[in-house]
């Protein structure tokens, strides 16, 4: 769900996300089955998400955004109605949308994204002991740089052979060829990192 300190506001934000996914699908003239096929998720999941019966996980949301040829930031900002502020280059802290993965507790705060600017920035917090694997499609047509701000992060690029990086606060890592990537927090405290991306 979209993160918020008030349950009512969180439900409203989750409803906006569900409606935006429906709007993106319908704008393209796609059926739920078409979207499911393009995103690599089940039609039942698409249906439940659009009806607000299920909160999408980070992986599912990334797959849906990719099917629409949007970044995760682009989809979240459209859901928050940011289109009316497209001309703005200032991202106020109070206006930065957040999202929480219902499975892992992974939280993402969109620090900056604007249609007129080539860069995006997000801040992610991964709970102690948690891990999430994001699909290769998340890294297609974009360049990404990760900067660990606090805690420890183990990042594994799923290729042949796998390539694993153990990162500590202050470390930066640029992503290579698109592939599935596992983010794991091996420590007993949350890990917070920033991600900067640019479309190629």
Automatic annotation (TrEMBL):
List UniProt keywords, sorted A-Z. Answer: DNA-binding
Q: Which Pfam families match?
A: HTH_3
Q: What residues does the HTH cro/C1-type domain cover?
A: 21-75
Recorded hits in CDD domains, A to Z, give: cupin_XRE_C, HTH_XRE
- List the Gene3D superfamilies hit by this protein, alphabetically: lambda repressor-like DNA-binding domains (1.10.260.40)
Q: Which InterPro entries match?
A: Cro/C1-type_HTH, Lambda_DNA-bd_dom_sf, RmlC_Cupin_sf, TransReg_Diox_bact_type
The cross-references to PANTHER family, in alphabetical order and at most eight, read: BLR1115 PROTEIN, HTH-TYPE TRANSCRIPTIONAL REGULATOR
Q: What is this protein called?
A: LacI family transcriptional regulator
| Taxonomic source organism | Deinococcus actinosclerus
């Amino acid at each position: 769900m979209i993160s918020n300190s008030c349950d009512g506001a969180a439900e409203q934000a989750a409803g906006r996300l569900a409606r935006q996914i429906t709007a993106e699908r319908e704008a393209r003239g796609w059926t739920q089955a078409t979207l499911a096929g393009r995103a690599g998720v089940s039609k039942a999941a698409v249906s439940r998400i659009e009806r607000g019966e299920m909160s999408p996980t980070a992986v599912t949301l990334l797959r849906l955004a990719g099917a629409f040829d949007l970044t995760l930031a682009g989809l979240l900002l459209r859901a928050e109605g940011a289109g009316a502020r497209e001309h703005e280059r200032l991202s106020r802290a109070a206006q930065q949308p957040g999202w929480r993965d219902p499975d892992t507790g992974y939280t993402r705060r969109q620090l900056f994204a604007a249609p007129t600017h080539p860069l995006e920035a997000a801040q992610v917090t991964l709970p102690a002991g948690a891990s999430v694997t994001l699909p290769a499609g998340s890294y297609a047509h974009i360049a990404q740089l990760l900067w660990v701000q606090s805690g420890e992060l183990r990042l594994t690029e799923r290729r042949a052979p796998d390539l694993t990086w153990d990162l500590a606060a202050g470390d930066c890592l640029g992503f290579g060829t698109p592939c599935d990537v596992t983010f794991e927090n091996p420590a007993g405290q949350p890990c917070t990192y920033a991600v900067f991306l640019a479309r190629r």
